[in-house]
Automatic annotation (TrEMBL):
Enzyme Commission no: 2.6.1.1
Protein name as annotated: Aspartate aminotransferase
A GO CC term assigned to this protein in UniProt: cytosol
Organism expressing this protein natively: Elaphomyces granulatus
Portion of the full-length sequence here: 86 to 493 of 496
Record note on quaternary structure: Homodimer.
């Protein structure tokens, strides 16, 4: 029988514990380098100016109401999300090979994809989902929750603090044919290390050779480089090669719509005469899964995103806002590296500016992270990952001084 007594205590989420400790700390020197959300130079959450405008437009629309959305979500939004991730000229869109569902942000999109594959994969118990070492921790939980055995592929080189491309390709080559390979489209979380376009080509070649199934997670398009096409390059390249794949897309970071839970899941089927029929079958099954999980996706945030994605003037303003965010992050990277090099802090610091996106794997060790927390009131995850969004013009000097102290 089931009773509450059989439920064991779960371990505390490390990020949650970190945040609680940060909030308890009463020092006015404290710095939060754990947060996974953008902060402006005043260390405050930033509502994108374009989102303010779009929000007003949604609110003042005389036809606005709180009705349910369709099961697949707001259809114009879904089409715009497709165009954004795949490019307006995508062959997959033209050939009606993309099936899109609005989801509960990126997390919901990864989950819907994982669930869909678990339902329809002909041999789930003998197939593994390969994730990068390390990856966003939730990947392990989401795929694990729907029964996927998980394996890892080498990704981060502790030596170079860049990509271990040989290890990565080696594992792709030896993984059983037809494995599912989870890929971060850009701004890899937690390392900030992305493959170059040449490396993506090598990765795609092995995936094709071994008939693996690529599953892209794109949570930072435009936020990484400030350029939507550049950050979408890898996915578009895979689609151009004719690969069948799926994509989990989040608009949390690039629109700053974290709590609104705006995302999409796309299944892109391979080119072929039966594309429309295939799309219809996939749609019919995703509709059943979506219905049983959430019935209908949340409307408000998707309406805001929809306004921006479908209005050329607001879209251009959004691109400016993306450059503001990615530019500030990039300035913080340069600022931190410059200060550490100026101090002669032991080690090499080029990886701080080579890495991209919100996060950086600094190479700081657990004892150093401990010193930063106890002596300097600087909070970050034990693995040495920092969120660049926690840096600003007022705390850069202080953080560099503290890193220098902890490392020596
Ligand atoms: N995937 C990656 C790699 C992420 O870093 C995140 C957010 O941190 C997500 C997905 C999903 O986030 P959300 O559910 O807020 O869109």
């Amino acid at each position: 029988v089931f009773t509450a007594d059989v439920v064991p205590q779960a371990p505390e989420d490390p990020l949650f514990g970190l945040m609680a400790a940060y909030h308890r700390d009463s020092s006015n020197l404290k710095v939060d380098l754990g947060i996974g959300a953008y902060r402006d130079d005043q260390a405050k959450p930033w509502i994108l100016p374009v989102i303010k405008k779009a929000d007003e437009r949604v609110r003042n629309d005389p036809n606005f109401n709180h009705e349910y959305l369709p099961i697949a979500g707001l259809s114009e939004y879904c089409l715009a999300a497709q165009r954004l991730v795949l490019g307006t000229e995508s062959p997959a869109i033209k050939e009606n090979r993309v099936c899109t569902f609005q989801t509960i942000s990126g997390t919901g999109a990864v989950h819907l994809g994982a669930l869909f594959l678990s339902k329809f994969h002909p041999n789930q118990s003998h197939t593994k989902v390969y994730v990068s070492n390390p990856t966003w921790v939730n990947h392990h939980q989401i795929f694990g929750n729907v029964g996927w055995p998980i394996a890892i592929y080498p990704y981060f080189s502790t030596e170079s603090k860049g990509l271990d491309i040989d290890g990565f390709l080696g594992t792709l080559k030896t993984a059983p044919e037809g494995s599912i390979i989870l890929l971060h489209a850009c701004a890899h979380n937690p390392t900030g290390v992305d493959p170059t376009q040449e490396q993506w080509k090598q990765i795609a070649a092995v995936i094709i050779e071994r008939r693996h199934f690529p599953f892209f997670d794109t949570a930072y398009q435009g936020f990484a480089s400030g350029d939507l096409a550049r950050d979408g390059w890898a996915i578009r390249y895979f689609v151009e090669l004719g690969l069948e794949l799926c994509i989990a897309q989040s608009f949390a970071k690039n629109f700053g719509l974290y709590g609104q839970r705006v995302g999409a899941f796309h299944f892109v089927s391979a080119p072929g005469a039966e594309a429309t029929g295939t799309n219809r079958r996939i749609f019919s099954q995703l509709a059943i899964l979506q219905r049983s999980e959430i019935s209908n996706p949340p409307a408000y945030g998707a309406r805001i995103a929809n306004v921006v994605l479908n209005d050329p003037e607001l879209f251009a303003q959004w691109e400016d806002d993306l450059r503001t965010m990615s530019g500030r992050i990039s300035d913080m990277r340069k600022g931190l590296r410059k200060r550490l090099e100026a101090r002669g802090t032991p080690g090499k610091w080029n990886h701080i500016t080579d890495q991209i996106g919100m996060f950086s794997f600094t190479g700081l060790t657990e004892p150093q992270v401990q010193i930063l927390r106890e002596k300097w009131h600087i909070y970050m995850i034990k693995n040495g990952r920092i969120s660049l969004a926690g840096l600003n013009s007022r705390n850069l000097d202080y953080v560099a001084e503290a890193f220098d102290d902890a490392i020596r």
